[in-house]
Amino acid sequence: MDYKNIIAKFADVPGGMIEAFHAIQDEFSYLPEEAIIEAAKVFGVPAADAYGVATFYSYFSVKSRGKNIIRICESAPCHIAGADEVVAALERELGITMGNSTADGRFALEFAQCVGQCQATPVITVNSKPYFDVTPAKVVEIIAEYK
Amino acid sequence: MVNVTIDGIKVSVPNGSTILQAAKEVGIKVPTLCYHPDQAVKANCRVCVCEVEGNRLLQAACSQPVFEGMVVKTKTPKVIEARKTILELILSHHPQDCLNCIRNGNCELQDLSAEYIIRDNPFELKVRGLEKDLSTPAIFRDPDKCVLCRRCIDACTVIQSVSALGVEKRGCESMVVPTMGGNLIDSPCVMCGQCVHACPVGAIGEIEDIDKLMAAIADPDTIVVTQIAPAVRLALGEEIGMATGDLPMEVFVAGLRHLGFDYVLHTNFTADLTILEEGNELLQRLTTGGTLPMFTSCSPGWINFCETYYPDLLDNLSTCKSPQQMFGSLVKTYWADKMNIEPQKVVSVSIMPCTAKKFEAARPEMNSSGYQDVDIVLTTREIGKLFRMSGLDFSRLEPSPFDSWMGAYTGAAVIFGATGGVMEAALRTVYEVVTKKELTDVNFTFARGFEGIKEAEIDLDGTKVKVAIAHTLSNARKLMDQVRAGESPYHFIEIMACPGGCIGGGGQPITKANVKRIERIGAIYDEDASLPLRKSHDNPEVKVLYDEFLHEPLGHKSHELLHTHYHAKNKKCL
After folding, report:
1. Tens digits of per-residue pLDDT, A60-93?
2. Domain layout of chain A by residue ranges
3. What is the DSSP letter of B322?
């Protein structure tokens, strides 16, 4: 769907900009610059402010990125449980380093803060769906689900 | 009223006062950094913390309202230690670059570091290594120096309604950035420079052109000619240790000759000329059904604003170039010819209270003399720096008059420097042109003062003309929205981008509060009143210019040299 139509749906919602941003991101995987500028117009705030909102929340991205967003927790419990090895496996499997996206636009790799599942570390999420007790071997299976 | 005790001194202050205000009342200065007297309270730097009896935590004096019986201590060991730590933390992210900084000697953070005896900072220095923004010819940003006080954002958004600056990201990653995180030139920035005044440190400043000037002066083959804008002299004294308005004009001229300028002329001359051209343009529009209301066009920050935010109203702008640019096109044609000087040898310098003038001079269309009309623009601050470097003792300088043919001026030109001044100057001339009668009183006092928007109806012998005056772009916006909606009752509108007009311009000595701007305005009307000629059409050298060269206002030559056209800026981020 066109970002203009998405934004229009939230135009009358109080504080609808954040919801519009989520909906845009569901569609595009990130917030395109034109969409932020359009949201500023629709919600009657300066573009500088809309950009401020878009960059304030770590779950919004203003940079183009892969469709399936894989996040790995970098907090202490996951770290101790071997998150490093999981990171290495993800990077090896996708052929990219953390913070980047695959050339085919299918995957993006990001660090995340704790996702609250410390009973089953290390934890990764793919498009916000958590995977528990992840090992390098499991990484291959998980990625295969989204290929 | 509320009774409070500050450091043992009892004082009664109005309800709603802050600790900071109450402390000021008893003569105690609480240190501040993010606080700005003309802006909303931000309370983000915490430098102003004080102890309040009964409170476990320290309170920010700038935001904490006083209450009945409040007992405040502003300098206990606990308070001093907290302030020192806060400063040390700020400094641990701040480049230790004071010696090379544009604000060396005039920096709030430097002052606080000195006052709080910061010596061995226990925190490791971690500078983010962000890139400088040198995208505009007028203003730079050095984000590494930013202390995140957000005063620039307030100036840009609230005072100017330009909203070119915002905060990106959060926490220790947050930074003040131009719209969409890009460069200033791609943002709606109008280069008014009010952010420079707001900045407590050297994170935003003017692009300095001092080296260019020094090179021109050192070159034996060039003839360096300067013009001085009306608002400069009043404030320049502040840069060289004098009170506002105390530097006499002819001592200023003498100082410039010492620096090596070959000829010293005056923008006031072309300010008077502007009145003749713009006044006649207004009359032409009134009588021939031209686009009304007509807007003044002297303020380049305002022109940038109109081109950015009101491109549909560009036809309302007077086609008159600003006095700086009129001067530029004449100095390399009329003046060079009259002085028997080859125009290609002339380096045309202007000394301006303005940062946007640097951008204006660099506009590609500003070359009607066949050359770049104005080669170098220096701000009042830059000329102040040159004067300090020169070692001149201004109390001992022999006064020197302006050079001829573009140096004479009237009081009408002087008041261009204050909000309402162009309007008053125009009315002095338009009244006499229309009514063919001499004004009994040249003072149009409705046009004076710091009020945001002023208006009046002027009776020109039966013809009623409604006029309005606005300073700051947020006030301009109110009048523009009226025009856009087709509801403007006015015929003529004066807009100045900066608070108080040019006396509060982005290139003036760093101005921490509007009270200083109001003081400068007072000095400008004193100068006007002291002059023998106070109407632009009485300027003898302007008369010679029309007799010998231009022949008539709005004539062929005028259109070629003194008038311009405007372009919509089409900023992607709007």
Report:
1. 999 999 999 999 998 899 999 999 999 999 999 9
2. 3-56, 68-146
3. P
Of B327, B320, B322, the closest CA to residue B348 belongs to B327
Q: What is the pLDDT of residues B73-116, one digit of tens each?
A: 999 999 999 999 999 999 999 999 999 999 999 999 999 999 99
B290 vs B9: CA distance, rounded Å: 65
Residue B348: what pLDDT? 97
DSSP string, A82-127: THHHHHHHHHHHHT--TT-B-TTSSEEEEEE---S-GGG-S-EEET
Mean of the pLDDT values across residues B365-369?
Answer: 93
Q: Which two tokens stand for residue B95?
A: 């480049």
Point out the catalytic residue in the list B51, B206, B278, B494: B278
Total Cβ atoms within 10 A of residue B70: 21
The catalytic residue among B62, B152, B199, B298 is B298
Nearest partner of B233 among B218, B244, B217, B241, judged by Cα:
B244
* Residue for token pair 């400094």: B91
B318 is catalytic: yes
B402-434 core/surface letters (b: 16 or more CB in 10 A; e: else) = bbebbbbbbbbbbbbbbbbbbbbbbbbbbbbbb
Beta strands in B70-203 (DSSP E): 70-73, 139-141, 165-168, 175-178
**Residues in chain A within 8 Å Cβ distance of B474:** none
- Cis upstream peptide for A46 (omega within 30°): no
B140 close to B207: Cβ distance less than 8 angstroms: yes
Q: What phi and psi values does residue B347 have, to the nearest 5 degrees?
A: -100, 115
Residue B517, both tokens:
């701007």
- The CATH number of A68-146 is 3.40.30.10
Neighbours of B382 (CB within 10 A): 22
CA–CA separation, B506 vs B192, rounded Å? 6
In angstroms, the Cα distances linking A98 to A3, A90, B148 are: 28, 9, 29
Question: 3-class DSSP state for residue B324?
Answer: helix
pLDDT at A1 over 80: no
In this structure, the number of other CB atoms found within 10 A of the CB of residue B202 comes to 25
Task: Check if the beta carbon of residue B371 is closer than 8 Å to that of residue B230.
Answer: no
Tell whether A73 is in a known binding site.
yes
The yes-or-no verdict on residue A36 having pLDDT over 80 is yes
What domains can be seen in chain B, in order of their start residue?
2-91 (3.10.20.740), 128-206 (3.30.70.20), 211-561 (3.40.950.10)
Provide the pLDDT for residue B151.
Answer: 97
Q: Is the peptide bond before B143 cis (omega within 30 degrees of 0)?
A: no
Q: Do B573 and A37 touch (CB under 8 A)?
A: yes
Whole-number Å distance between alpha carbons of B358 and B380: 12
Q: Do A52 and B168 touch (CB under 8 A)?
A: yes
